[in-house]
Design brief:
2 domains; 0% strand; 64% helix; mainly alpha
Length: 109
Amino acid sequence: MPEEKTVSWVKIKPEELEKIVIELAKQDNTPAKIGLVLRDKYGIPKAKILGKKITKILKDSGVEYQSEKDIIGEKAEKLKIHKEKHKHDKHVLRSLAKKLWLFNRLTKS
């Protein structure tokens, strides 16, 4: 897969982008949150424009981060515990089903 060419209107260099991504990850931001900060604060629509995805930058630098799949898995576990304590709570069944659908969708891709 060929790398995308850098866009002329993005003034930041790939090395600077990597430093920013690593700093944001050290502040316990998820890759999705880092992407939002890059878009809103720095005007970079996608980090991939400059060569690498955010998760690739984090893996290469060895920074620990929590993926969306891990976060959704933790939320599903909390909902299961709540469901066991409160058997008549119908809303938790619906939200648990939604979390499990999303978790399964993320594991397939």
